[in-house]
């Protein structure tokens, strides 16, 4: 700590802080324009000028100057005020000052400072800028006429997002922020630049002109897309969510969001939302009343084990727990699951046998505390972009080493010093086993490992996985595998991350145990900056696991439920929010199965492809309209409250299940809070939690680890002559099938595609945007080609989110599918 | 005082007024002349054949009676304009704050005071009706 005097107050501040930070810490306000506490100090605007006595009263920027012992600082002498006024006058000189039509007005730093410093007139005159405004993309408008050249946009895009779309171009008075070759902006559209821009240069187009900042009601919530669990502030007017607002103090991510969180909110007030319950009468879905619909549902639920349920892990913990309770106690069926079953098996089988718990023994906060990150699949960035930002920052600011094991290259591979081993698709488990073998052979095993159950067996069983043998099958070099293992073992703290989800069938229990083995053998778990983070796909995937909403004690899992529907064993299928027709493997089979059940009940926000097949459709509520809790992938339990009123004819899933329980003769809990009290009493790690104790930042549910070493099975993928290996996955702009109803994501990524390497494209005479017919043993589908440099030869990639040309027509649940292409 | 004096004084005034210009207007055949600063029904100013209003939302913000509804739109040139501009004259208190707040001199108050009407919805003046008043 350092002692200094600011404006005659004796204050102390940490040694590493700047004058600005020291003042802020002690409640003294210094105006800033170009500084952001997430970014490195820059010192571009000179608004934060202060006088330091030791520097002979010279005016220096507070945001870049570190504090020193005994410093005497003055922040508001008449000279300083005069200097700041001058800064503003000069900024306003070329500024258009078109506040009436500028969307930033009311939330504009320049406007606020001008008002605060009473800059009513300008001593100087000059011409205004005439830069062309960039309207080329549907999400971000760039009007460089209003830019104050604070550089925040370029800095955040580089330092945190690591995309580098923006930079200063030209010199002197001509300086402006531009994209490469002064072209239109074409980036990943995370909107980070928009959120930090202090003026109206960068604007969110979906919100443009919709409302003024001051007329918005601001409500805190939690993002409803992926498992990162980012906190959101929703901007609401007239009971409509009009935008997401930036709050730099919110969440571990300090207000940073990805494209889905920032621009994907439109599904909440979409006019495609279901507005009334519907029943199938004479083959057509016709509007009905809740009373009639619920009675029919209740009657069909009285079928014991011939009733099955699938839920989306986007429901709240309370809803999932209540759904489970209804199925077990009131319906009398053990057949319920989420995410097709295999998508959560890494947690529910893999981690259970390897770590003795169904949660990750690491948190997102461990990323910054680690020395080395091992990421399985570059897709980790696309599935969880804000975790990706943490990785970017760790690698760039803290020199954390990044090793990636992936079947294709990706954005993470471009980080400085990142080492990507691109292997043949489907050989991850074998490679991880070979790494474990190499750690054993090179005597890098931690002393604690020998006493872990299963050690001796593992040593024996790993004999076949010599790096040389695995190298041959995976397309890597044995030396690389050994080096990867060596650097992982040598790092003092190392963290392994891998995404799971419905598109990642290969990221299953076997893979989870394979990575767990590495962590256990090297003793890298249960310690700060160490462990394994299994990145669960949806916003409450971890919660669904914690609530036990999956097949247990002989119940059928997701895929077996589909089979049983087709076979006639399941007569009533209740689907809450899932869209299996698009997101489960094997379209034809799922379609036949859904068609075969006697009564298909779907509760959803939209008439999804699955809901369109239903006999009863119930209009449900989005996260913005209900109360409950979500558990993020690192087991942070967060409370959400209704941000807007739900429409009269919609019921939350909680209300639907409650009403059904009553109809089935049970007593439902009074409200979500009562259900949460039951959850906290019964769920390991949730003990003592209540809505009050969760607060605005949420609380981590602790994870207790009992390690065990298990040999994961690895199946070799045999490439067929003349075929390409298709891997499916998630794209940055989408999450599950829900984001199809968000306008923002659909603006930038409206349809599925097939990513193919340059060489393969050349061989098959395919160019960008060519329609290609992709055929596998399961069927065929037409996709647009996208030729990229990141795909290895012989491998193609397709995202799985889209209902228009569903990829599951050619994919039946294998980690790798052999396909042929035809133009 | 002589009890007759006040009567005479009163009659004097009456007599005097018989030869003065009458104050009472024979409304509606006779019309009042309103002062220039009179605050009657609003009008939206026009320039280059377009409403000057840029839908800045300042008048609905400042309006103490909350009777102005503005919804902005984006035209083909990406410029802002008032897609909806409505004043609920039943709630308006004719304070003139909207005129004062307008940064582009888009709204003024006319001398029109005859605002009676038959149905409630006719008291909500849409953009078209406000533009008509020139
Ligand atoms: S950037 Fe700020 S000061 Fe400039 S026109 Fe917009 S609101 Fe006004
Ligand atoms: S939206 Fe994100 S990626 Fe695009 S320029 Fe802004 S910060 Fe960079
Ligand atoms: S566009 Fe905005 S954030 Fe970027 S330099 Fe200009 S004012 Fe700063
Ligand atoms: S990273 Fe996930 S939780 Fe965060 S904003 Fe993006 S989609 Fe939402
Ligand atoms: S203040 Fe003027 S420009 Fe702004 S909305 Fe009202 S009339 Fe239009
Ligand atoms: S805030 Fe310090 S120079 Fe801009």
Ordered list of secondary-structure elements with their pairings:
The complex is a heterodimer of chains A (823) and B (134).
Chain A: E1 2-6, E2 9-13, H1 19-25, E3 49-52, E4 59-61, E5 72-74, H2 78-93, H3 109-116, E6 140-142, H4 152-159, E7 167-169, E8 176-178, H5 192-196, E9 202-204, E10 217-222, E11 231-237, E12 240-245, H6 259-263, E13 278-281, E14 284-287, H7 290-301, E15 307-311, H8 317-331, E16 336-338, H9 345-355, H10 366-369, E17 372-376, H11 379-383, H12 385-397, E18 401-406, E19 419-422, H13 428-441, H14 455-461, H15 467-474, H16 478-490, E20 494-499, H17 509-521, E21 531-535, H18 541-546, H19 558-567, E22 572-576, H20 580-583, H21 587-596, E23 599-604, E24 616-619, E25 628-631, E26 636-640, H22 653-663, H23 672-682, H24 691-694, E27 699-700, E28 724-729, H25 743-748, E29 753-757, H26 758-763, E30 771-775, E31 780-788, E32 795-799, E33 817-822
Parallel strand pairs in A: 1-5, 15-16, 15-22, 17-18, 17-20, 18-19, 20-21, 22-23, 23-24, 28-32, 29-31
Antiparallel strand pairs in A: 1-2, 3-4, 3-5, 6-9, 7-8, 10-11, 11-12, 13-14, 13-24, 25-26, 26-27, 28-33, 29-32, 30-31, 30-33
Helix pairs in contact in A: 7-22, 8-22, 8-23, 9-17, 13-15, 13-16, 13-17, 15-16, 19-21
Chain B: H1 5-18, E1 42-44, E2 46-47, E3 50-51, H2 58-62, E4 68-74, E5 80-88, H3 97-101, E6 107-109, E7 124-125, H4 127-132
Antiparallel strand pairs in B: 1-6, 2-3, 4-5, 5-7
Bound molecules: iron/sulfur cluster (5 copies) and FE2/S2 (inorganic) cluster (FES).
One iron/sulfur cluster (SF4) is lined by residues 140, 156-157, 161, 163, 165-166, 187-193 of chain A.
